[in-house]
């Protein structure tokens, strides 16, 4: 098996590159049709990764919505939902969060060495807590996921996590959904945090699709042949 999974990074953003607004409520950026598409994409991966801040602020469920997709996964011997993965430095994760409470698939937490024992004690049997080094070693984390049978990993944000994966050069495919609105608030989180890495190489635009009032741009890593 490959030493790292194929990494698909997925994001919905405003026309000005924000992934939420600055309020406590999550801003709905995409639409029902796109949420159904995301459900299908999720059904095709082995694991979904979000940052600890997204677990805290959005309390996402990260389980498949469509029963047919769960049945299809079961029929091919997979977990009915993709494995859930998160990353934390602070260890501030609530065992009651939907991330840990919902779905039948395993949950994995990559924690910095300094917090791993505290997080493991707090979460008990709810998650497998793995020492991710200090600083966090992304290649090692991806190797660990591959050793657990994860061949396709979907990275769903937020901004710090997008930035981490893009800066490390570990994104094979990028799905950007552009919603027809502006946020225009510097306090709001952005798709990628500015200044975190130098300008990257060009990617290949593989698809442009209209999804209701949104646009999906699908990119593959690397430049297309001229
Ligand atoms: N539109 C979209 O597609 C989309 C998708 C997901 C989320 N969002 C939005 O994104 C926002 C959250 O984004 P965010 O950037 O604040 O947070 P985030 O990326 O969800 O999570 C960041 C957290 O992950 C942990 N982390 C990240 N890199 C790490 C490293 N190298 N070492 C150790 N820990 C690390 C830290 O957790 P600790 O703090 O525990 O140390 C850090 O605070 C929310 O507003 C959410 O609604 C939007």
Task: Give an overview in words.
There is one protein chain. This protein has a single domain (6-220), classed as 3-Layer(aba) Sandwich (Dihydrofolate Reductase, subunit A), CATH 3.40.430. The mean pLDDT is 95. The chain is of the alpha/beta class. It is built from seven helices and nine strands. The two termini are 32 Å apart. Strand 8 (204-211) and strand 9 form a beta hairpin. It has helices at residues 32-43, 52-58, 67-75, 98-101, 116-123, 138-147, 159-168; strands at residues 6-13, 47-51, 83-88, 107-111, 128-131, 152-155, 173-178, 204-211, 214-220. It has a nine-stranded mixed sheet with strand order 5-4-3-2-6-1-7-9-8. It is globular. The chain binds NADP nicotinamide-adenine-dinucleotide phosphate. NADP nicotinamide-adenine-dinucleotide phosphate is lined by residues 11-12, 19-20, 26, 29, 50-54, 57-58, 87-90, 92, 112, 136, 156-161, 164, 189.
Could you give a quick summary of the protein structure above?
The protein has 7 helices and 9 strands.
């Amino acid at each position: 098996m490959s030493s790292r999974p194929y990494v698909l990074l997925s994001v919905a953003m405003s026309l000005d590159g924000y992934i939420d607004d600055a309020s406590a409520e999550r801003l709905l950026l995409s639409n029902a049709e796109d949420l159904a598409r995301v459900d299908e994409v999720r059904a095709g991966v082995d694991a979904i990764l979000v940052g600890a801040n997204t677990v805290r602020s959005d309390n996402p469920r990260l389980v498949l919505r469509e029963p047919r997709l769960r049945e299809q996964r079961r029929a091919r011997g997979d977990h009915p939902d993709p494995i859930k993965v998160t990353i934390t430095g602070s260890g501030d994760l609530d065992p009651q969060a939907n991330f840990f409470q919902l779905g039948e698939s395993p949950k994995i937490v990559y924690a910095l060495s300094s917090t791993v024992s505290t997080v493991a004690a707090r979460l008990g049997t709810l998650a497998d807590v793995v020492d991710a080094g200090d600083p966090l070693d992304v290649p090692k984390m991806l190797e660990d996921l591959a050793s657990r049978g994860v061949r396709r990993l979907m990275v769903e944000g937020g901004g710090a996590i997008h930035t981490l994966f893009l800066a490390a050069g570990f994104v094979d495919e990028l799905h950007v959904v552009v919603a027809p609105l502006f946020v225009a608030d510097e306090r709001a989180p952005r798709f990628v945090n500015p200044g975190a890495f130098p300008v990257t190489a060009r990617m290949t635009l593989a698809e442009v699709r209209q999804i209701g009032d949104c646009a999906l741009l699908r990119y593959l890593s690397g430049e297309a042949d001229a």
